[in-house]
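ok so i was messing around last nite and threw this chain in just to see what happens. nothing serious, just curious
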Amino acid sequence: MAQQSPRPWPFTTEVLGTMDGTGDALPATYHYYEPLGKNHKGRVVVDPVNGVPQFLDMELSLGYLGEILHHLWFAGSKHPATQLHFQVAMGREIIVADRIDLHLLWENNSRLFIKPIPRFLLYPSFWRDNLACAAGCACEVSQAAAYGSYAGKPPENQGPLAVPCRESLRRVALGFLYTYACLVSSESDFHVANDKRLLPRQADDSAITWAKWKELARELLKNHDPDKVHPRFLRAELRLSRINMISRFTRLPPIDLYLRGWRNYSILFRDNFIWMTAATVYVALVLTAMQVGLAIERLREDTGFQRASYGFTIFAILGPLCAFSLVALGALFNLAKDLPWLLRDKASQPQRQRRDIEN
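result:
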């Protein structure tokens, strides 16, 4: 007897009860960016009920992280996510960030971004209705053929009205839930997750019970298959500073970061002047040592030492100037990016004032 293809949803445990309707499981609104001109985007707020597939495309999008999978080894090793209570014990501050591309990214100041579990991902019926591919989907055919349960012909071109494949979104959702099965392992983790509101709550605002969560986590681990989850979630925590470094070398312009950790230019200059000051102190120590060395007869007559002293002296003069120029260039680049928004807001302000007066 041929082995049956596995179901596309990873659990049957209903920790939140049954779903009355798709709209009840979705958020009130969601934000996304649409193009405004050549190099600018504007943020738009939309009702997710009016387009569930479009909402899922935005909600489960990894963005730039999906483009640099082969570079993520530099930002974090392959391992399950560390338990929440131990994250707190290590001094990390849990920051709620409702973006899946920021999930489990941590900064050097010990801030750890974690995305709460969306309510809709804990309803098996939502998985069946919105994250399962349609019959005859290419991914379903290849999967069923691998399990020896498909006897038909692969589907041909189904035209532009065909239901798009949901496999990529499903892999992201599976990986995301797997991280929570690792994060919330003990009852201590469960209490931390509830304190930070990382787990959705019941309709009466009561928390999910520990017994129900254990049942769900065990089922997620039982059905976990590394080949069926998105590779990003196999690395758990990623260092944000290294993601920014990868962004510098793989995107243009190189000044553009994945996520900038400053919100005003004074913080930008302050953070960069810290390492520039430390580097300047080290350079001063080396120059002092070279000056002492040149006073010694043996080193004064050494041609190699004189060349090294000459080269390092030139570096000590030009290095700080170049470093400061790069910081200033970064500030100017970000100002050039922000300026159109400021000018547009300034231009639209009189129009808003006139409308308010007329109303």
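not much to say yet. Residues 1-5, 145-162, 352-357 have pLDDT under 50 and may be disordered.
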